[in-house]
Structure formats: structure tokens, C-alpha cells
Design goal:
Length: 311
Amino acid sequence: MSEKYIRKNKNSYKIIKNSRVFGKFDSLDDAIFVREILINNNWDIDNFTLEMHLSLDNYIPVSKIDEKLVILGKFKDKPNDKFLEKLAKKRIRNPNNSKYGLNIVKVFDLFMVKKQIAGDEYVFGVFDNLDDAIFTRNFLLDNNWNVEAFNEVEYCDESETYKIVKVYEDRVYILATFKSRSDALNNIENSKSEFLNKITKHKHGLANHPHLDALTEHIEDLENEFHITTEDDVWNFSEVNDPLSEIIFNLTPWQKIIYDEISDEFAFDDLVQSLSRYKTKNFDKKVKRYLDELVDLGLVEKLEDKNYRKI
């Protein structure tokens, strides 16, 4: 009976009975170990949550995740409940032990949280650091992808920090991160002001924050919502001095997005790929239209073979 109910795949072992998969494991020994647990439970895992087993002087916690049994680890000392809860959450968030876990992809230097729902792909946030992306993904997984569940200050259980959160048009933005809840609560207004400052500088080409691209046309709405007027100790956003800066200052949001994205010389296909975080229907035509407008403004020169050059 050593391999009964166990099917070997290329790099794993599955426990299968009556066409149902009860678990997938890296080693035959682990599959046999869990199969015996299932047999002792008459293959009933509906009420299975977490059980601690002892084998060869190791404590082995076994949990049910996504209707399958998984081994959370092997320990010489018995782990406490809080530690096991963290292990279970980590397994749920990254069942395949991938680089970033579920629902996070890296696009150039940005991290995007996205999910397919009813056949459509939704982007829930674009971040300039992995920590903010992981926090957002974890919170949404725990709250059934409901962005309305966010409070203004939320705790991140992985980094053990507190984050100031803003949800705008169903996308999540992290304004700032603090080590204590009191620090976060005391810095909400400052964080909002700095957040608006970043968006405005990015829009005017005074800083590079591509994860805030989608907000450059909503500065006034955010100022009204936050009851803040964007200011900076160095830059006066209402004044522009040289002709090039004035042209850039007055670009439309999509013209500015493309202008900030391009390098000195680039291919059209590479530009479309680098802007994939914005992809919608007829996206190539949309990029081409705004790129042609930049050519007409004298900011970009069209070369041969679908290549362009920033002037």
C-alpha cells in the first residue's frame, strides 16, 4: 500500500481518491504521511482546520488550504499558534513558492497587484516597492478583494508596520509607512500633503514617480478631497520659466505619461510594452495618437523602422 492513492508527476506527488486531489507534495514521504492522516480521518476534510502531528521527533503541522491538505513545516520544537497562523497565511498568499506570490507582477521597476474576476483583469494598485504591493495583495486576499474594506491606517502583518492608505477610483495607494500606529495617526495630514506634492512634481517633470501616473489628471480633485493646496519649498508650480518647461508643463496627462516613459531613442513596440500597466482596448492606437501629438509639439522625432528619438 506504500503508494496507494498517490500519483507521481514530474516533480511532485498528488494524493488522489475518486478523482479528487487531496494534496500535492514535493516528496513521496510527505505524501504518504498525509495520506495516512486522511485514512485515519475517513477522507473527511470538510471540518479539517489545523492538526499537529509528531513524526521522527519532528512536529509537523498540517492544515487545509483551498480544500487540500498541506504541510506547513517540520519543527524540533512545538510552534505556537501565532507562528502557525503566519505560516498558513504565507502559504495561502504564495502557494507555489514563487518570487512575489499570488497576484503580483513586476513591470520594469514597478510592482502591480492585479486579479482576473469574471474573465476581466483588474489592476488594484501599482507600487514603486514590493513591500507596499505585498501589503495590498495580502489585505485584499483577506478581504475578498474589497477595496472598500481599507481604513485610512492599516497594519501590515509581514513588515509589522502601519500604512496610511488612500483608495481612489478602486485603486490602492500607500501614502506613507510608520513603525507605530500613533506615528501614522499623527502624520496623516503631512502624508497627504507629501503625496500630492509627489503627484504634482511627477506631472511637471520635476520628479519621476511612474506609479502615480494615473493620478496626474486628478490633482485638483484630491486637493479638494484632502482640503490641501499643493505646495513645495523649492518649486512654484504656478510659474514656468523656460519654453521647454512650459511645453512640458502644459502637456495633457497621457502626453506626459508617454513623454516620461520614453528614453532618448526607442522603438514603438518597446514603448507599448513598457506602458502595459495601462493597457485597454485599442491600446496601440491610443499610444500612437499621443506619440504623434508629441511629434507635432517638437518633443519627439520620428525615425525609420518604427523608431523614435526624444529631442
